[in-house]
Amino acid sequence: MAEQAGEGSDQEKQDARETLGHALVTLRRKAGKSLAQLAEDTGYERSYLNRLETGQRISKRPVIEDLDTYYGTDGLLVRLWKAARNSVIVNRYKLFMQYEEGAVIMHKYMQVMPGLLQTEDYARAVLSSSPNHWGPDWLEEQVALRLSRQELLNRDPSPSVRVILDESVLRRPTTDPKTWAGQLSHLVESAERPSIVVQVLPFSAGVHDLMGGSLSVLWQADGVGVAYLEGSKSGELIEDAEEVAQYRLSYDQLRDSALSPPASLDVIRKIMEGNAS
Fold it and tell me: How many Cβ atoms from other residues are within 10 Å of residue 143's Cβ?
């Protein structure tokens, strides 16, 4: 998925979340409730309610409906929630990149070559294949944006990254052999870094419940986790803790079926040798 900006201004998107958060704070204060009291009354964790009020989280609709009932606001909070949720959906990929930039741990299952590990030539080849290719300037802007994401790998300390790479990714080369050789070499070099682990999920592992798309599970320094499901033309950001936990479990099961890191590197090197012959 190309790193393209969503519709509407960044300020409008931020305002929608801040408006909902401000409304929640105002209503709680008018009710004379502390966060601890609100948590006791509603059954939701204090830290969770705090993240809603500060705009760090967009809850599920039932949570907002409960708060709507609690405050007696006759659907106002639901309407504000819809606006905030739509702002996240429109700008979902940019928000995902913000989470990615701040992540200390990343677990990814990829059915495409992960953008964090792509070479410039490979990124250009992939992006130029899009039917929405809008010319040289657009292409170079998208390539630069994709490569800029990789700067986070050089942080000190660098994030811990584990990538489960579907074997299909390694069996679909670019039309230019040099570009493909460079990408495979870069993949091996990346996997040799202490902070990056690459595992190959072989075809022999069979079917699994993450088929049909790629998954990223990201943990922030404060322990909050998010998941991002990515298809070729769409993406879905998941912030609900219970849903994230389910995707983490799916990822862990998939990791058990993948080749070990050393065996995975052997597979990649063999493909490199075949590509060179």
Answer: 22
Distance between CA atoms of residues 87 and 136, nearest Å: 30
User: Residue 135: is its pLDDT beyond 80?
Assistant: no
Is the pLDDT confidence value at 76 over 90?
A: yes
Residues with Cβ within 8 Å of residue 121, at least 6 apart in sequence: 176, 178, 179, 182, 183
Residue 152 DSSP one-character state: G
- CA 191-194-196 angle, to 5 degrees, is 45
The predicted model scores a pTM of 0.69
Q: How far is CA 68 from CA 23, 40, 112, 136, in A?
A: 11, 16, 42, 50
Q: Which residues pair with 107 in a beta bridge?
A: 162, 217
Check whether 110 has a pLDDT greater than 70. Answer: yes
Q: What angle do CA 188, 162, 273 make, to 5 degrees?
A: 20
Helix ranges (H only) for 166-240 are 167-170, 177-191
pLDDT digits (tens, 9 = 90+) for 220-268: 999 999 999 987 667 888 989 999 999 999 999 999 999 999 999 999 9
Question: What are the C-alpha distances in Å from 25 to residues 22, 53, 137, 244, 258?
Answer: 5, 6, 45, 26, 46
DSSP E strands: which ranges in the chain?
103-110, 160-166, 196-201, 214-220, 225-230, 235-238
Annotate 41-69 with DSSP letters as a single string: HH---HHHHHHHHTTS----HHHHHHHHH
What is the SS3 assignment for 221-233? CCCCEEEEEECCC
- For position 89, what pLDDT does the model report? 55
Q: Under a CB-based contact definition with an 8 Å cutoff, are residues 197 and 162 in contact?
A: yes
